[in-house]
Amino acid sequence: MSQLWVPVVIVVVIGLIAGLGLAIASILLAVPKDEKAEAIEEMLPGANCGACGFSGCSGYAKALAHGEAKPGLCAPGGAEVAKTVSQYLGLADVAVEAKVAVVKCLGSYDNTSDKMEYEGIQSCTAAAQLAGGVSSCRYGCMGMGDCVQACAYGAIEVCNGVARVDPSRCKGCSMCVKACPKHLITLVPLKRQAIVRCSNCDKGASTNKVCKVGCIGCMKCQKVCEVGAIKVENFHATVDPEKCVGCGKCVEACPRHCLAMLE
């Protein structure tokens, strides 16, 4: 019977020594808490989207606590979070302009066609490596949803082969902008303004062959704009959001219907 106690005692002693070692290590190697950073992190939305330029909300909170970053970089939090953080840090309020993502393409299955059959990985980034993608328009959306996967707010969906953004859900974090290999998605100020829903910069005749609604650079929108907010360069119209007053005249004048109003 006494022989059974020997291994039991050994195991108990080893356990006590190991436990004591862990206890000492936890004290010596403990990372001091940054209460200021933790408090700021609680104010952030917790999306960890990286739109602020840091690894996540924790990284941004630490930078704010140590004066290495300014409030207002959190796009999902917007003006409300920027104001809360500024007040906590004793800083002046920072103006934050709300922005929304816009997909500059209308190349749906109804408006364009595929130039080949693609059976590879269902990823826009992967497909773009093969002759510029499946669509007959080399500038067009491939509709495989890389932007959908990147959006943490469910603001994007692919409809009829083209990505579409729901402005009411979009937080302006820009993750979809980074995910699009065709650079079709951009952030614009959330206000009433004209948006060119096309990225094709080829000549009108070439554009007309690959898309029914692509911009052909006809300049009709530029001619009717009374504030000089639209310019046509490289056979493609561009709207300056700072100048656009949202009158909608360019939308009515566009024969290709690739201009739309962002409400």
Structure summarized in a few sentences:
The chain has helices at 2-28, 35-43, 57-65, 78-89, 124-128, 146-150, 175-179, 204-210, 220-224, 249-253, and strands at residues 99-103, 156-159, 162-165, 185-189, 193-196, 230-233, 236-239, 259-262.
Characterization of this structure:
There is one protein chain. With 263 residues, the protein is of the alpha+beta class. The protein has three domains: 35-89, 3-methyladenine DNA Glycosylase II, Chain A, domain 3 (Orthogonal Bundle), CATH 1.10.15; 97-188, Alpha-Beta Plaits; 191-263, Alpha-Beta Plaits, CATH 3.30.70.20. Helix content is 34%, strand content 13%. It has ten helices and eight strands. The strands form four sheets. A two-stranded antiparallel ribbon has the order 1-4. Strands 2-3 form a two-stranded antiparallel sheet. A two-stranded antiparallel sheet has the order 5-8. Strand 6 and strand 7 form a beta hairpin. Helix 2 crosses helix 3 (57-65). The longest helix is centred in the N-terminal third of the chain and has 27 residues, at 2-28. 34% of the residues are buried. The mean pLDDT is 90.
